[in-house]
């Protein structure tokens, strides 16, 4: 590394947040810009530790020490060349990934890890700003055609990889715009949609085709039609069935899955119109303490909620790594997001007993597991951020037992193929539809791996990287 003592000389320092009163007045991303010297200093903290556990922590196998060193020398071209070789969308992961690489950073054993995620963000943004290569164009056309169903991060990563191999790629999305949860599940303050649209423009330039408002199965385009018209089909349909809370009153007006609320909010921001589920002036309860719950929290703040309580059934996580979650695993630690800094109350060890009201929600009944106390809170909007139970396989006609795992996800073989589906061309699957609800970085890694498997099936061999095996799933 260029600064071998950097980790001894410099403290971890990320970008500053925009002031809370300012950022609550708009939907822009929450960070202030960080100058190049400060970023280079953070790159200098990389230890050149010999065995880069950070790369093992990253499902994509990003060459983290290499681009950290390039950033220290402010060689943005070299940094981008290293990063885009393993990650199709670092502008997404640099904003949205919970950074398992940082949990595995050797420096984090006794200090704060390198700001790997933010450095990744900066490399991607410098590449776009300076006109560096951010996509790989095909050299030779294969004459083969692949249909990708679903336009979330897994589907987009697979599409980009397959197009780079020279295949004709068409992405089908049932919604009115491309992006999946990147479009309608991620709030604008975490990733402005111009970032997604910029990437989609690059993919179109390489020759990827996108079709929206196309439902595959469920009365729409039959899966068998895609198999007849394409040489391979990839299902990247995500895990979209929300996990609800089966307690009395769950059907009251005012109780909604978190993703229903977030999609309505994202559409409202895009269209400049009020959301049909607007939290303005309402008493909001968020059930779920994870990232989706925090997304709801930040959204409700910006909509002007009267009060917000975020409830988590689990105990409060520890502030420091517990003994049963040793380095380099990704420990479950207490996390304060930008949304939590903006206000609201957090409660842990609290279970939902019922929702109360006469057709319309009026209050929620909770139980504090620590004190045993029953709590009644005023509420006219409850958002259930309890995750997802699996993909919507019934609409594709793939809900038969031979197509499913014990976790109600799609069953694939060692080549990412849904072997139990007959037809004119093979059907493959990847992402949350196979893994279950997971991280964006796993989705991209699975998309890249499935693309390599499809390329092999079409050509007999592949030069595309395959960072994951479907039998190396980590839950």
Kindly describe this structure.
Helices cover 33% and strands 14% of the residues. The protein has 18 helices and 15 strands. Helix 3 crosses helix 5 (64-72). The longest helix is centred in the last third of the chain and has 20 residues, at 440-459. The model has no long low-confidence stretch (mean pLDDT 96).
Uncertain regions spanning at least 5 consecutive residues = none
CATH architecture of the largest domain: 3-Layer(bba) Sandwich
Rg, nearest Å = 23 Å
By secondary-structure content and strand pairing, the structural class works out as alpha/beta
Strand order of the largest sheet: 3-2-1-4-15
Q: Could you describe the largest sheet, including whether it forms a barrel?
A: 5 strands, parallel
Number of domains: 3
Residues in helix, %: 25-40%
Morphology: globular
Q: Write out the CATH superfamily name of the largest domain.
A: FAD/NAD(P)-binding domain
């Amino acid at each position: 590394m260029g600064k071998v003592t950097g980790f001894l000389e410099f403290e971890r320092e990320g970008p500053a947040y925009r002031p809370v009163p300012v950022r609550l007045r708009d939907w822009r991303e929450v960070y202030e810009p960080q100058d190049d010297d400060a970023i280079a200093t953070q790159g200098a903290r990389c230890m050149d530790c010999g065995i880069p556990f950070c790369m093992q922590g990253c499902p994509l196998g990003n060459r983290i020490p290499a681009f950290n060193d390039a950033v220290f020398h402010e060689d943005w071209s070299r940094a981008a060349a290293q990063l885009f070789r393993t990650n199709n969308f670092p502008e997404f992961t640099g904003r949205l990934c919970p950074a398992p690489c940082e949990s595995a950073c050797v420096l984090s054993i006794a200090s704060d890890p390198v700001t790997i995620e933010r450095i990744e963000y900066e490399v991607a943004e410098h590449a776009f700003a300076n006109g560096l290569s951010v996509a790989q164009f095909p050299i030779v056309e294969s004459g083969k055609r692949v249909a990708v169903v679903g336009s979330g991060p897994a589907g987009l990563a697979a599409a980009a990889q397959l197009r780079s191999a020279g295949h004709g790629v068409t992405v089908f999305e049932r919604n009115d715009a491309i992006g999946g949860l990147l479009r309608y599940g991620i709030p604008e303050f975490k990733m402005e949609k111009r970032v997604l649209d910029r990437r989609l423009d690059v993919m179109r330039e390489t020759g990827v085709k996108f079709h929206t408002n196309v439902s595959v199965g469920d009365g729409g385009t039959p899966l068998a039609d895609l198999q007849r018209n394409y040489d391979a089909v990839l299902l990247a349909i995500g895990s979209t069935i929300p996990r609800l809370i089966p307690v009395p009153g769950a059907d009251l007006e005012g109780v909604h899955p978190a993703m229903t609320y977030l999609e309505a909010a994202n559409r409202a921001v895009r269209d400049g119109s009020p959301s049909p589920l607007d939290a303005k002036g309402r008493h909001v309860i968020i059930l779920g303490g994870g990232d989706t719950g925090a997304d709801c929290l930040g959204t409700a703040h910006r909509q002007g909620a009267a009060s917000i309580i975020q409830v988590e059934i689990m105990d409060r996580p520890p502030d420091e790594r517990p003994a049963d979650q040793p380095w380099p695993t990704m420990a479950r630690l207490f996390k304060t997001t930008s949304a939590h800094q903006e206000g609201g109350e957090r409660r842990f060890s609290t279970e939902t007993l019922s929702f109360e009201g006469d057709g319309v929600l009026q209050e929620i009944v909770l139980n504090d597991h620590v004190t045993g106390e029953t709590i009644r809170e005023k509420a006219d909007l409850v958002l259930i951020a309890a995750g997802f139970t699996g993909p919507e396989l019934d609409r594709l006609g793939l809900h038969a037992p031979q197509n499913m795992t014990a976790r109600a996800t799609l069953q694939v073989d060692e080549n990412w193929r849904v072997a139990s589906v007959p037809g004119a061309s093979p059907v493959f699957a990847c992402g949350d539809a196979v893994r279950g609800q997971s991280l964006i970085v796993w989705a991209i890694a699975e998309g890249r791996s499935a693309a390599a498997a499809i390329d092999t099936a079409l050509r007999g061999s592949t030069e595309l990287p395959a960072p994951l095996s479907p039998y190396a799933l980590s839950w």
